[in-house]
Design a protein that fits this description.
The chain contains six helices and eight strands, in the order βαβαββββαβαβαα. It is α/β, with parallel strands linked by helices and 164 residues long. A hairpin with an 8-residue loop joins β5 and β6. It is globular. The two termini are 18 Å apart. The mean pLDDT is 92.
Length: 164
């Protein structure tokens, strides 16, 4: 399965963004997105169109010590569908992370910043042309790349075929 991970460039004066560090170290297709409205989604959309991945997992950084498996993307800027649900297997993702000792929880709000906007557009793209392996968004703690370097592998394993 061809999986595409995205992460964001550093922002707020920091030198590292854990979302990008996890994405690029995962050993799969990865794209780094700018932290700028109107630019992040078009870049991800273009990469999706070029590579045609089977699954897309967008990562973003958040404060705190747990991975947030985002369930709902909210449309904050337009008149289209007001909200979209993730297409990731959140229970399997959570179980895989927990098995590795990685704290996590399902979140009902991806925030009101760029992460939510990318998540919303990704789910609209999935609605138009579904990714067989799923699509969605996960917020990762700011130190995730150091504290849990295996987290991306756990996420990737949970995207595989569903057990029967």
């Amino acid at each position: 399965m061809r999986v595409l991970l995205s992460g964001f460039q550093p922002f707020g004066g920091r030198k590292i963004n854990a979302s990008w560090e996890l994405a690029r170290a995962a050993g799969v297709l990865a794209v780094r997105l700018p932290v700028e409205y109107g630019k992040a989604w078009p870049i991800l959309e273009s990469v999706i169109e070029d590579l045609k991945p089977d699954a897309v997992v967008a990562l973003g950084e958040c404060p705190g010590r747990e991975f947030r498996l985002e369930r709902i993307a909210v449309n904050l800027r337009g008149a289209e569908a007001p909200a979209c649900l993730t297409a990731l297997p959140l229970e399997r993702l959570g179980a895989a992370l927990t098995k590795e000792g990685i704290p996590n929880r399902v979140s009902l709000c991806a925030g009101d910043y760029l992460c939510n906007e990318v998540f919303y557009h990704l789910m609209r793209a999935h609605a138009a042309r579904p990714f067989p392996g799923g699509a969605g968004f996960i917020h990762v703690p700011r130190d995730a790349h150091r504290a849990w370097p295996s987290a991306a592998r756990s996420i990737l394993r949970s995207l595989g075929p569903r057990p029967r």
